[in-house]
Specification:
heterodimer; A: about 300 residues; alpha/beta; Rossmann fold; CBS domain Like; 2 domains; 4-stranded antiparallel sheet; B: about 500 residues; 5-stranded mixed sheet; 3-stranded antiparallel sheet; 22 helices; about 65% helix; about 10% strand
Chain lengths: ~300, ~500
């Protein structure tokens, strides 16, 4: 359980975070979402003390992170950065094993652990172990980044905009991988993104941050059903996207054909994304019919995740 | 030209090799010291950006000071020889190595540094496994620039007795010997290229291997010096230095041979082309060297203050010089050799016979002659202006020209009379005649060993050995030897030995 208590961070007399309270439950996939400059990354970096709050405190299991041994804290916390942030002078194996080396694991044990994890993220060890980061695609580099973060069996994994530089296809594959890994490991994941579709797709719960303040906290469906204020509404409901939304979802090949007689809720092209989300929740079948196409909720979300 | 260089290299191969090794030694020491200072400094200042920028500014300011000025500034503090040369080289190379290391370390992608911090690696791990390897290409190119600069600037070490390839460049410029100049310059250039290439290769070796290599080199280096100092017999070493040119080199070799023959426990190190008069004099006073050959005329005109005018009798001149330098500088000036190396007036044999010229007075009757002078001689009071008054000379045409050219002009008949140094080998080469200074206008220039009185008192055997040369070596002997060394490019050491053997001063 991670708790932020009255956390304020001031840079050059300007508050990046203002008197913010937030708690993240153990085992949760928690997403911090907001536009750039909102303070979400600052919040994430306070957890492993890359940033120290100007006032207030951050606790993990009721222990103030300011009192923890810094190296211990960081060595047992997984960290995934933008585009992998792999060290270009080291091989994939050396990169992935960096925390294990710091923790003093013997070489054979390190090797076995990296081997196991590379297989888990679908990178053939014999092909990838000795490669340099320059020989990896963006998606492959970020898979290695994830292996590096998970290597030490951390109780907590922090991810700072890990997929923002990836192409839509790699992004979807990696989002799926994160969901799978979280389900298997049951570890706390804190994920920062500026992409609201990514937030909706991944989050158990998400926090919308704007101007250093918490705007709304809740499950994706709750937030979509009941946006707390104008900012949250605008953030998730891009009017241009909405106008072309259904046409695009169907043109992209989502959903399946049905006969006209089947009973499904109809969705109007002019409705907002929140109304669609409410419909999805209300209907027992949780399916949406548009003309002769049937869309499932996952189609909408998957489609949204492909949008930039 | 090419064969000239070839003969020069053949006759001097051993000395050239020694100079090359000395050049490498100075450069390597300077490079290592610079690296040891610059890289840790950059690491320390990495977390103090303001101080880092300040050091960067200071280093670039040092860079703009001419290297000669730095050498000059250092002499009062650290003296002469290799140490000030190395200090100057270090100051020079500091800038490229420091600035590149600093730039390399500060320009690392901040995302990577954040990753290293976030993963909880130790500071040492971060520095040696992440920051240094990532900055290495820039650091190595800085080292490359620095080393090339060191090798180039190290040629200036010769100016302050530091040795190295610069000796040949300096010698070449001062004695108009293009072969020597080319040998020094080309070898220095090749050395710089080779070093640059070696460092380029280092860029492809891993950081770990590089570290091991440096340690191995350091151990080998210390071992080399250790062994060398152990196997060197514990004898006393006396340094005998000479001014620029072939003649002083012959003299110091004569000194070396007679001293070492009489006392096998003394090891004489000769430093040829060591510098000008005032430089050698300071080196002697500060005990950097123990002996150097000096001239009576120079002692009287430049080194001591005399109340009366200069006595033109050689014996009296020597005694005045000896007494004055003993009281004013606590130095002992041993008895000089026979020959005189001073100004003289010279004409070709044909001119001498045609006009029956024997003395300088005889020239007064020939105002129609064209005279050629060294620019110094033309201006100095003890040169032509004084001579003109003393002998009533009145040449209608007087030209000043490069010293070496006036002999050629004389031989070609463009000049009828010229000034000369009495032992110049060209006198023999062109078959010239020196006119007698019958009014004893020119101060006597007789060469004798100069040393500190404290040294002379503790080394009576050295004095005794050197005194064997007193009164020996006539002007024509000296011309002959100078001819062999400067014109025929024979080795000074060989020529000196040959002379001592034929005159039974050295046992065979």
């Amino acid at each position: 359980m991670i708790r932020f208590e009255k956390v304020t961070k001031t840079y050059a007399n300007e508050d990046a975070l203002h008197n913010l309270d937030l708690s993240i439950s153990a085992g949760e996939l928690f997403v911090l979402v907001g536009p750039s400059g909102s303070g979400k990354t600052t919040l994430l970096k306070m957890i492993n003390r890359l940033v120290v709050p100007t006032s207030g405190k951050v606790t993990i299991d009721d222990e103030n992170v300011a009192d923890m041994n810094l190296e211990e804290l960081r060595r047992h916390t997984g960290y995934v950065l933008q585009a992998g942030a792999l060290f270009p002078n080291m091989t994939v194996e050396q990169n992935a094993a960096i925390q294990l080396e710091a923790l003093g694991w013997p070489e054979p044990k390190r090797h076995a652990r990296i081997l196991e994890l590379l297989k888990r993220v679908d990178l053939a060890p014999e092909l990838f172990l000795q490669r340099k980061p320059s020989e990896l695609s963006g998606g492959e580099a970020q898979r290695v980044g994830i292996v590096r973060a998970l290597a030490s069996n951390p109780n907590l994994v922090l991810m700072d905009e890990p997929f923002s530089a990836l192409d839509p296809l790699s992004k979807r594959q990696l989002q799926a991988l994160v969901l799978e890994l979280h389900r298997e490991l049951k570890t706390t994941f804190v994920f920062v993104t500026h992409d609201m579709r990514e937030a909706i797709r991944l989050a158990d719960r998400l926090a919308v941050i704007h101007n250093g303040e918490l705007q709304q906290l809740g499950k994706p469906a709750d937030i979509l059903a009941d946006p707390a204020n104008e900012f949250v509404r605008d953030f998730f409901d891009d009017p241009v996207a909405r106008q072309r939304f259904l046409k695009q979802v169907i043109d992209s090949g989502f959903g399946r054909s049905i006969s006209v007689d089947d009973q499904y809720v109809a969705l109007k092209g002019s409705d907002t994304i929140f109304q669609w989300a409410a419909l999805v929740q209300q209907t027992a079948t949780q399916n949406i019919r548009v003309g002769n196409r049937l869309l499932e909720p996952v189609d909408l979300i998957d489609y949204m995740a492909t949008l930039k | 030209m090419f064969t000239g260089i070839k003969t020069y290299i053949n006759t001097n191969s051993h000395e050239i090799l020694l100079s090359l090794l000395q050049h490498i030694e100075i450069s390597v020491i300077a490079a290592i010291i610079t690296i040891i200072i610059a890289i840790p400094l950059a690491v320390v200042l990495l977390n103090h950006r303001r101080a880092g920028e300040f050091v960067l500014q200071v280093a670039s300011v040092i860079q703009t000071i001419p290297s000669l000025a730095i050498l000059g500034l250092l002499i009062p503090f650290v003296g002469i020889g290799t140490i000030p040369a190395i200090i100057a080289l270090v100051l020079y190379a500091l800038m490229p190595i420091f600035s590149n290391t600093y730039a390399g370390l500060t320009n690392i992608d901040p995302l990577l540094l954040e990753a290293a911090d976030a993963l909880g690696v130790s500071k040492r791990y971060k520095l040696f496994r992440i920051q240094f390897p990532l900055a290495m290409p820039l650091i190595l190119s800085g080292i490359r620039i620095g080393v090339v600069m060191i090798i180039g600037t190290a040629t200036l070490a010769a100016l302050i007795g530091g040795g190295g390839l610069g000796t040949y460049i300096l010698l070449g410029i001062q004695s108009n010997n293009n072969a020597a100049l080319l040998v020094g310059a080309v070898l220095a250039a090749i050395l710089a290229l080779v070093a640059s290439w070696l460092i380029k290769i280092l860029a492809h070796i891993s950081f770990k291997k590089l570290g091991i290599g440096v340690i191995v080199l350091a151990i080998l280096g210390t071992g080399f010096y250790g062994v060398r100092s152990l196997i060197t017999p514990k004898t006393e070493t006396i340094t005998v230095a000479g001014k620029m040119g072939g003649e002083p080199e012959i003299l110091i070799n004569l000194y070396k041979d007679v001293i070492e023959q009489d006392d096998p426990n003394i090891n004489v190190v000769v430093k040829r082309n060591f510098g000008g008069t005032s430089f050698l004099f300071k080196a002697l006073a500060s005990k950097k060297i123990q002996i150097y050959p000096e001239f009576t005329g120079t002692v009287l005109t430049s080194l001591v203050k005399t109340k009366s005018g200069i006595n033109h009798d050689p014996v009296k001149a020597y005694h005045t010089a000896k007494t004055a330098i003993a009281t004013q500088h606590k130095m002992t000036f041993l008895r000089p050799m026979k020959y005189q190396n001073g100004y003289g007036m010279t004409v070709t044999k044909a001119t001498a016979e045609k006009y029956h010229l024997k003395t300088i007075s005889d020239l007064a009757a020939h105002p129609e002659f064209t005279a050629g002078y060294d620019p110094d001689f033309y201006q100095q009071e003890d040169g032509y202006p004084g001579l003109k008054k003393a002998y009533g000379l009145n040449f209608t045409k007087v030209r000043t020209m490069e010293p070496s050219l006036r002999y050629q002009a004389l031989a070609a008949g463009k000049l009828q009379v010229a000034d000369a140094y009495t032992t110049d080998p060209e006198i023999k080469k062109y078959g010239l005649v020196l006119l007698r200074d019958n009014k004893r206008f020119f101060p006597p220039y007789q060469g004798g060993p100069l040393m500190l009185t404290s040294f002379a008192n503790t080394h009576p055997s050295v004095q005794k050995s050197l005194n064997k040369l007193a009164g020996k070596i006539s002007t024509s002997d000296m011309q002959e030897m100078n001819y062999k060394v400067t014109v025929q490019h024979q080795k000074a050491a060989v020529v000196a030995k040959e002379y001592l053997k034929t005159h039974h001063l050295l046992k065979k």
